[in-house]
Amino acid sequence: MRDERFCNSNCPFTRAIGTIGNKWKPIIINVIGTRTIRFGQLDSIVPLISRKVLTEQLKELEEDGLLERLAYRELPPRVEYKLSEKGLAFLPILEYIKEWNLKYEVALIPKETDRINYVR
Amino acid sequence: MRDERFCNSNCPFTRAIGTIGNKWKPIIINVIGTRTIRFGQLDSIVPLISRKVLTEQLKELEEDGLLERLAYRELPPRVEYKLSEKGLAFLPILEYIKEWNLKYEVALIPKETDRINYVR
DNA sequence: TATTCTGGTTACCATTGGGTAACTACAAAT
DNA sequence: ATTTGTAGTTACCCAATGGTAACCAGAATA
Question: Looking at the predicted complex, does its ipTM rise above 0.90?
Answer without folding.
Answer: no
